[in-house]
Amino acid sequence: MLLPSAVSEDLCLSIHNLRDVSLQNLRCEVTNMNTIAEKNRKVYRYGFSKWSAFLKSNQIHIGATLFFKYVKASQLLILTKVVHKTKRKRGRA
Q1: pLDDT digits (tens, 9 = 90+) for 60-71
Q2: Quick one: which of 37, 64, 75, 92 has the fewest CB in 10 Å?
Q3: Structure pTM?
Q4: Rounded distance, CA 58 to CA 25, Å?
Q5: Rounded CA separation 59/64 (Å)
Q6: CA angle 44–6–52, rounded 5-degree value
Q7: Is 50 helix (H, G, I), strand (E, B) or coil?
Q8: Separation of alpha carbons 18 and 83, rounded Å
Q9: What gap in Å lies between CA 8 and CA 1, rounded to an integer?
Q10: Residue 38: CA count within 13 A, CB half-sphere
């Protein structure tokens, strides 16, 4: 998962200042996630290491759409909604 640039800026993330970010899941449990930097052409984008472990521990499958609320005062990302990817059943011809 990549962080929106506004959140990255508010957290003062840079390649020299990668820090933990607190994520709250739907059960109100807070996890500290390490940030990583990824170079995209001339700019850096920031995301989380161990993202797949967070998804697995929260029973979220790859392809789901996640909605977060960012609380600037506490620098907390709160997971507010998960929309699971639906599989279409193939009909018989």
Answers
A1: 998 899 999 999
A2: 92
A3: 0.79
A4: 8
A5: 11
A6: 65
A7: coil
A8: 29
A9: 12
A10: 11
